Amino acid sequence: MAFTLRSINIARARSVQIDGQPVMTGIFKTATQGSVVVRPMGLEGDEQADLSVHGGLAKAIYAYPSEHYPFWQSVRAQAKVSAWDELLQSGALGENLTISGLVESDAFIGDVLRFSGCELAISGPRFPCFKFNAAMGFNQAVRLMAQSAWCGFYLAVRIPGTLRAGESFELIPGPRDVGIQELFRSKLDRAKRS
User: Fold this and answer.
1) Which of 44, 45, 117, 163 measures 20 to 30 Å from 11, CA to CA?
2) Please, what sign has the CA dihedral across residues 109, 145, 15, 12?
3) pTM of the model
4) What is the CATH number of the domain that holds 57?
């Protein structure tokens, strides 16, 4: 299986209007060129607005599989999102790393993504909030992510260094006790019951 880092995406936190209210967010990421420095708290040049749910050592970087992009493109078309016919660009789902070859059903807590210049460990699934609906342009995006469990995953920085778009990486299996989709669905079920 070939694992590839297709794009590195960053954004500074900024204020945007969501449902008529100003909200700080770093979800609107764009691809960057060249090497990017990877530090324990994330990528150089990237910010998270709400550190209670994003960022920190365990959630320093967010990765999302490019394999799901056609699905999101299709549902945006069905929802008749303005400019829906424009292709979604890497980073559109708020991810720092757009990857290929590794999807949630094959990702486990503790697995390591070994790049030539750094190592990142899978630390947990992403749980979408209302900002994801705004980024996708329609109000059912969070529900669709919950149903599909195509949530992507957070990464902790094990060995800081650098990343470059286009490079391949190696997947080093961890203990393989808890899968990303299993943990995502379990936490959603608990949240529904509370």
Assistant:
1) 117
2) positive
3) 0.95
4) 2.40.33.20
